Amino acid sequence: MALLEIRDLHLHMRSFDGEAHVLNGIDLTVDRGEIWGIVGETGCGKSLTGLSVSRLVPTPPARYARGAIRLDGEDLLAADEKRLRALRGRRIGMIFQDPTTNLNPVFRVGEQLLDVALHAGRSDPSLLGLAPGASGRALKRAARELSLAMLDRVGIPNPAARLDDYPHQFSGGMKQRVLIAMALIGRPDLLIADEPTTALDVSVQAQILRLIHELVREHQLGVMFITHNLGVVAQLCSHVAVMYAGNVVEAGPVRDVLKSPRHPYTNALLAALPTAGTARGALQGLAGTVPSLLTPPPGCRFFNRCPRGEPGCTAATPPLVGPEGGHRVACPVVLR
Amino acid sequence: MLEVEGVSKIYGGERRGFFGRAPQVHALSDVSLSVRRGESFGLVGESGSGKTTLTRCLLRLEEVSAGTIRFDGDDIGRLSAAGLRALRARVGIVFQDPYASLNPRMSIADIVCEPMEIHRARLGLDGRGRRDRAAELLERVGLGPQHLGRFPHEFSGGQRQRIGIARALATGPDFLILDEPTSALDVSVQAQVLNLLHDLQAQLGLTYFFISHDLGVIRYVCDRVALIYRGRLVEVGATEAVFQNPASDYARSLIAAMPDPDPDRSPFGPRFPG
């Protein structure tokens, strides 16, 4: 059974101007050991897909109109808040974009880390190497040990001394390491990383990518790596899903998708990226804008900007076509 | 056109408490570079390396602690108030965040006309003339006169950055400082803005001082490039030469850290052989 299965997920979001169809039938399967890059431009729904998996999208104003999200077969859309609290941080770890706003500035880093370790340890004492029913003191001591070990694992020098530091005493890259430690302390199976390196310098980004790669190898994590940086996807990810206006338009092994892209949108994204050989002035932008999600056009949402659009494209939302786990494209024109 | 010689900028050393003084920060140490007329000069560095401090010094928004900056032969540190005004009319600047750099309460016409009002003595345009020029500038950046009465919130990020560029061009500058002009934009929009900048340079004969941490963009846009690290220039040279044969360790590590969009060149090896 796949670790994470998202099937035909439709998410509607209520707003003052009506209901926006922000996710329009997402299909995605993430297995252990796979790093899925979720790429797309601002507003395409990539973050909402990630947040939906950890059920952090508030309902209302959001509403899941259709579809399913299954973690090891368990339907997350049907789970109650108590069950979700047990899953978050334990089965599902999360890292977000801005390491500065994700740590509480008034608590020591050690305390914040310990909180997570204790929460995880109470629900599963074996995580801390304890038998069920261990004393609070033993739990605390073991949680501190685990926090230290995790900080050391994510490459923070002299972790014992840093536990008593405040977040402002850490650099951006070090804070992101602390957050990675926090996300992994409950030994999750699935890691959702939402633009974890966007706020960092490239050299720090390279270190964080290396760290994530090592941790995936070590623990056989499944990862959803949400980003808009195709370079990062090419380096780190094993698979990639390209999203546009609430749809996955192309998905598959990273090499297949980036080396022989088929969907016109994927092609446009790659053509817009300056690389070593690009002559000045030869870069191709993408004309037009993303359609309104309040009144999405019928059929393919990329139609108004598509160089290969045909009248038939507006008939129905094109489904992802291709072998399960292989290179899949949602465009009948290129498939023909 | 622009010559920076041995510029240092030291902040701090200010009183702290009754006896103490804050430690000094050497934001720039002995920076020398020159920008030729008509070229695109790139400045690359990580956060905190002194990129922004240097641009502030170029506009004399900060006084340098040592060294001189010459613009067209004039030492900008010795300019009179009138000379400084003239300098600032000749040097335009486009800021990083198009959401923060346009006043939400001003119409597009007001935003683009404001620099012309400040420099009206030099430009000699009346209200009508300024508005006409604003319309012309908007057309140049791919918008139109119908946008003059609108407000920033009605525009997308890419359009806002075009407005920022129109504003920077309002006083007819020949030197444009571009401070990470595309880092807040999506790639497809970034491509449009980069192409616009390229066209404008060809049409107006502008000189660009392009600041970025995106090496891919720098390589695409710039003729020459300078790498700055902790306030020191570590490498200056023709862009392709620096990218292909970096001389310093820092340049090598920076180029190696740049994520290559080719999956075959991943440092983690092939993930899906076959």
Could you characterize what this model shows?
The complex is a heterodimer of chains A (336) and B (274). By secondary structure, chain A is an alpha/beta fold. In chain A, 32% of the residues lie in helices and 21% in strands. Chain A has a seven-stranded mixed beta sheet, sandwiched between helices. In chain B, the strands form three sheets. Chain B has a six-stranded mixed beta sheet, with helices on both faces. A four-stranded antiparallel beta sheet of chain B has the order 4-1-6-7, with helices on one face. In chain B, a hairpin with a 3-residue loop joins strand 2 and strand 3. The model of chain B has no long low-confidence stretch (mean pLDDT 88). The interface between A and B is large, with 45 and 42 residues.
Element layout with pairings:
The complex is a heterodimer of chains A (336) and B (274).
Chain A: E1 4-15, E2 18-30, E3 35-39, H1 46-53, E4 62-71, E5 74-75, H2 81-87, E6 92-95, H3 109-123, H4 136-153, H5 159-162, H6 172-184, E7 190-194, H7 202-219, E8 222-227, H8 230-236, E9 239-244, E10 247-253, H9 254-259, H10 264-271, E11 328-329, H11 332-335
Parallel strand pairs in A: 3-8, 3-9, 6-7, 7-8
Antiparallel strand pairs in A: 1-2, 1-4, 4-5, 9-10, 10-11
Chain B: E1 2-11, E2 15-16, E3 20-21, E4 25-35, E5 40-44, H1 51-58, E6 66-71, E7 74-75, H2 81-90, E8 91-94, H3 108-118, H4 120-123, H5 127-140, H6 157-169, E9 175-179, H7 187-204, E10 207-212, H8 215-221, E11 224-229, E12 232-238, H9 239-244, H10 249-257
Subcellular location (chain A): Cell inner membrane
Protein name (chain A): ABC transporter ATP-binding protein
GO molecular function, one term (chain A): ATP binding
